Amino acid sequence: MCGACGRPQPAGGPRCIACGAPLPDAPLPAPPGANAPFLSADLGGGRALSCEGERLSYRGGTAETPQVVDLGSLRGVELRTRFFREALALGAFALLGFVARAPALKAVAFGVAALGVLLAVLCRSHALVLETSAAGRVRWPLGLARRGSERDARLLAAWDTLAGVVRARGVPVRVVGARPPVRRDAPRA
């Protein structure tokens, strides 16, 4: 508001737009959504990844306190994706199937072993590895997801957003392990 003529003024101008009188310095309003989180992903199992302003935070469970990393301290970011190799431990039931005499026990043992192989093929485990100037390497497990599931899509969308932000800051970004699928709506090179 101009003190001389009383007319409202746009923020940041040095003089009144109507009468030309000098205006007092006033703080400029913050751009809309400056402190709003640009990344907020529920990864399932109580895990959450969010980024607001200059802070990237990860919560590994509902009862855990969030771990926070300053975006300015990042020296590298990578997404590690691998098949669900822990499920292959169910293959040990095949040994029971070979030595069992009862047909029902054989069927159950071979079925559990086959289920382990199926889970290893259909699911993948994701982890985010951050290389920071202060703490060195920080590993955040993002969780297990079935290939092509909604949870897998949410996780990869969160990764795409984070990768775009840190890449714009000049931080190297890598994907290690099984390559995420090419999205149908993305142009192919």
Short description:
The protein is α+β, with helices and mostly antiparallel strands and 189 residues long. It is built from three helices and eight strands; from the N terminus they run E-E-E-E-E-H-H-E-E-H-E. A hairpin with a 3-residue loop joins strand 6 (123-132) and strand 7 (136-146).
What does this structure look like?
It is a single chain. Helix 1 packs antiparallel against helix 2. Strand 6 and strand 7 (136-146) form a beta hairpin. The protein contains three helices and eight strands. The chain is 24% helix and 30% strand.
Residue stretches low in confidence (pLDDT < 50, at least 5 long) are 182-189
Briefly note the structural class of the backbone: alpha+beta
List the total number of helices. Answer: 3
The helix-strand sequence is: EEEEEHHEEHE
Helix share bin: 10-25%
Radius of gyration from CA coordinates: 26 Å
Spatial strand sequence of the major β-sheet: 1-2-3-4
Average pLDDT number: 80
Beta content comes to: 25-35%
Number of separate strands: 8
The main sheet comes to: 4 strands, antiparallel
Our measurement of the CA-to-CA distance between the termini, rounded to an integer number of angstroms, reads 54 Å
Shape: elongated
